[in-house]
Amino acid sequence: MKAATATRPRTKRSRRSAKGGPNPVDIYVGARLRLRRTLLGISQDKLGQALGLTFQQVQKYERGANRIGSSRLYQLGLILHVPVSYFFDEMPVDVAMGQRVPGAPGFGDQSQQPYGDDSLNRRETLELARAYYRITDPKVRKQLFELTKSLSRPVRQRKRR
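^ thats the sequence. predicted structure below, dont judge the formating
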């Protein structure tokens, strides 16, 4: 005699948001992928070659148009020298809950930007970070860091010193 097992009705998780665009988590993960790739100066083509994919597939991952599976995330983490958790770090709660953020671009938007502050995604920021880490002398790098911090303070604070 077989034991009775209770079955729960399955709820289907959608790959798309309620409005038909990509799932916000997929968009966020793709934005983190793009951020790390560009920070390391790796082209979509080079990343695609490392993954055995075309650059178009990398583009789809970065836009959130295609979901990135767990084994692929692991592979990306190895290639980009980050833990898998990096792709989910600092994810806003509304995105984690699968809610589309008002004004956030969707699947067909050409100018898609990641959620949150865009300053880390600007080419200028990435070039500055790369140049900073090319400075081999730790003392010079620290001096530049301190100079940059002092210049970023409001003028009132700089005059007090």
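The chain is about 50% helix and 0% strand.
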